[in-house]
Design brief:
- Helix content is 52%, strand content 13%.
- It is an alpha+beta fold.
- The chain has one domain.
- A three-stranded antiparallel β-sheet has the order 1-2-3.
- A hairpin with a 6-residue loop joins β1 (34-37) and β2.
């Protein structure tokens, strides 16, 4: 695998893993009356005592930070795998 392919795979995997972690509840305790989703940062919030029309809130900074974190994790794993194969 060349470096560009590894980087693209890492970015795509980072996005996929971030979106998948949005399916699992994460309770950081920041806001009472809300359920948080996403790991390692809670980037998706569902308000229990919600506004009538849209109880879901996305924190774009934490969403982007999660994508970066997961992309780096995948990149490190791919880097090690590629080095071990050589």
């Amino acid at each position: 695998m060349d470096k560009v392919k590894v980087l693209i795979v890492a970015i795509v995997a980072g996005i996929v893993l971030t979106l998948l972690t949005g399916l699992f509840e994460n309770m950081p305790g920041m806001l009472v009356g809300a359920t948080h989703f996403g790991y390692p940062l809670a980037w998706l919030t569902r308000l229990i005592i919600a506004p009538e029309y849209y109880p879901w809130q996305v924190n774009p900074f934490e969403l982007i930070a999660d994508v970066v974190i997961w992309a780096v994790v995948v990149w490190v794993i791919l880097f090690i795998v590629v080095k071990l194969r050589k």
